[in-house]
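ESCALATION

Customer reports they have been waiting on this structure for their group meeting. Please prioritize. Original submission:
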Amino acid sequence: MATYKVKANGEEHSVKVVDNPGGGATVTVDDEHTFQVEFTGGGAEVPAAMAGLPEVHAARAPAAPAAPARAPSGAGPAAAPSNAGPGGVTAPIPGKIISIEVAVGDRVEVNQLLLKLEAMKMENNVVAPISGAVTRIDIGEGSEVAAGQLLVTIEP
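Update from on-call: job pushed to the front of the queue and completed.
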């Protein structure tokens, strides 16, 4: 998840963007308005009706080629290849799991907090990409995780 501060018509807004495993993203403005955005042709259009903001055009930068995963000695696990599927939740960055907010069998909704990941002394919320039931939790509190490592599985 990435959080941005956006100024529109002289007002500042908080915009959270969560990449959806199946493509596109979930965009939440000021923790009040949530939209599903599909990326097409290298960019996306966000409707002007979005929280009364003017029309916004967002371009997505092409992804950098992935470097082979490896961890320096003592640095924790290397990133495992992710075959997570639409309900697989992976670590967005390497870090340490500081809390798990759900349990196997819990029903979750899109953008519901699943766990907190600490990286570079910053706390990062990891949220559900889809609604469904938590079927697996592959980490524990205190676990060191690599970017791309499977953390939680949700079945729709």
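Sent to customer with the following note: Residues 2-59 form one domain.
Escalation resolved.
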